Amino acid sequence: MPKGIYPKKITPTKERFERKISMEPMTGCWLWIGGQQKKGYGCIWHNNKVISASRVSWMIHNGNIPDNLFVLHHCDTPECVNPLHLFLGDVTDNYLDMVKKGRERPLHGEQHPCSRLTTEDIINIKKDDRDSREIAKQYGIGRTYVYGIKRGKTWKHLNGWHKVEGSEVEVED
Fold first, then answer.
1. 131 FRET partner, CA 20 to 30 A, in 63, 99, 108, 124?
2. Please, what are the domains in the chain?
């Protein structure tokens, strides 16, 4: 055999995919035992790039995935690649599936990382009778934001009764 560089034998994606599955008899999940991305989702090299193992599973068993669609899990197991546990959905479907399964953790008010105001600030703004420009300047926010707070359009979770420093304060809407 002549000396030189020989092309590496490329194993088809389907064959590599099938070697990286462990069947889970109790749940019916096909657990991905290959490489993983963040949050436990499997990944595999396909067409010169790394993609989700669940996407590859879908393509092997169901064909191409239309643009702007995600492969979602009925079983809610990130490492599952069983095509019977997968379904296609858009961004909205993905969000609604997350909410339905109780994985949504919306951050409200001062828990939100972008919040500049505290619950006490909001209650004080709601009670403040000064001109909205003065209030906005004091808190470093826009006048429109002050209107939204006073009308209950923003920080809606604070409409009604609230405790401030151990005493109940009624916030008028």
1. 108
2. 13-100 (3.90.75.20), 109-171 (no CATH)
